[in-house]
Amino acid sequence: MSLKQLIRPLVPESIKAWRQQRLVVENLLAATKPLHPRSCPVCGYQGFFSHFGRPPRLDAQCPSCGCLERHRLFWLWFSSHSRPLEGPLLHFAPEPPLEKKFRQIYKDYSTASISNNADLRLDIEAIDLPAGSVNTVICNHVLEHVADSMALKEIYRVLSDTGRLVASVPIIEGWERTYEDEGITDSAAREVHFGQSDHVRYYGRDFRDRLRAAGFNTIEEVTAEGRSVVEYGLLPGDKIFLCSKG
Ligand SMILES: [Zn+2]
């Protein structure tokens, strides 16, 4: 810190401005204070969760394992069934809290990403794998970033006949139609319109139609509801879609 910065609070006008800034910071901190102690089904942590995202969601992130609401919803479903997903598993856009769990359970588990931070470097819109070569594809909060009709077609192709897609996306259930606009390409505008600078749409409830259009005839839904929302810090109404060909 420079001398100028040090003496700035000593100047009367600056003191006033500094107090105003402090008030803003204090209000922000108060607004992001956790509401309620929660339990993390992924790592067993009990206590307050941290806020996450922009704008911040309260009680979103487990400070122990780093999981978010959707990871806890997924793990509650997964751990309440006996090995509900069959390998080989292909997990797009690695999510460290779940990745750690999967590696403990499955020998035939691979992460995939278009960048270099995964086991396999794959483009979800043109997956360089043989047809029918995997039994599970996990794709959480990926489809809102990409050309989803191409990605879903490719996921369908690489899945075996009995394979399943596990998918979640930001979805506004009150919207009949997905909101997207190819003309919105600027990252700042995308953040305003679609919630994140690299998102290209907000899904409405017609997300299910897109899954069916790709060939997934059976869609089961896991929903965050009731007491589990409070206990585990889930997003009310959050969804995981379990999609099968048959
Ligand atoms: Zn945790």
Descriptive notes:
- With 246 residues, the chain is α/β, with parallel strands linked by helices.
- The protein is built from 8 helices and 13 strands.
- It has helices at residues 3-7, 12-31, 69-79, 96-105, 148-158, 187-194, 207-213, 227-232; strands at residues 38-39, 46-47, 50-52, 57-61, 89-92, 109-113, 120-121, 134-140, 159-168, 179-180, 201-202, 218-223, 239-244.
- Strands 7-6-5-8-9-13-12 form a 7-stranded mixed beta sheet, with helices on both faces. Strands 1-2 form a two-stranded antiparallel ribbon.
- The termini are far apart.
- It binds zinc ion.
- Residues 40, 42-43, 45, 62, 64-65, 67 line the site of zinc ion.
How does the overall form come out from the CA principal axes?
globular
Supply Rg.
21 Å
Describe the strand arrangement of the main beta sheet, using strand numbers: 7-6-5-8-9-13-12
As a percent range, the share of strand residues is 15-25%
Distance between the termini: 64 Å
Largest sheet: 7 strands, mixed
Q: Percent of residues in helical segments?
A: 25-40%
Q: How many helices in DSSP terms? A: 8
Distinct bound molecules: zinc ion
Strands, count: 13
